[in-house]
Please model this.
Amino acid sequence: MDYLKQNGLDKNTLVLYCGDQGFYMGEHGLYDKRWIFEESFRMPLIMKWPGHIKPGVRSAAMVQELDYAPTFCEVAGAATPENMNTFQGRSLAPLFKTGEHQDFRDRPLYYAFYENPGEHNAPRHDGLRTDRYTLSYLWTSDEWMLFDNEKDPAQMHNVINKPEYAETVKELKELYGKLRKDCQVPEGFREPRASWPSSRSGTAHPPKTENFHAPVPFERTLSGSNPDGGGTESVHPPKQQPSPNIIT
Model:
């Protein structure tokens, strides 16, 4: 960062700091990271671009790695229909000012892990995360899990069979099917049975079978540094200037 500032590159450089999924240290009786549970679903994300990202902005918007490429295209002035239509993610640029935007309001995320058999020995499963709930389907064991992250942030109680969540389960399973279609999930990803079976277990501990990898990150935080006065507040760099550098 000192080098960028000393060489006059800081105002024309978008810096993105992110990390891999977190590892389990015994939570849910697990190790490694290949599960939809919160401990591995969340990933850090910090962005800095003086004059464009408002200092101190923290966002509760749920974003994922798929959003990085369209973000880079937009800030580089390359957000053409030809480019943007190739992405499943969304540009994060609308979040730069306040951390909020209608495009990210009530946005669900889809997650899928399918590497089983594999060295990590985690079950194949997929699911979704909304601002409140986590719904997951374990393919080989034919089980569902539902967690109310507002009431149970540690995800220790599977409420898939609780009567008071029946309507929520119905709505989330419909959303699950829509997300699979929107994400063009390959036919090899096993579809749940037509009867939408409920979990055979009320515990939050997953069956000891299968394997699953999560290409979807979770809730992120955006932050910026103090802009050095003046300059445009536009997300797009002025056309007469070169596109910004991007550091990840």
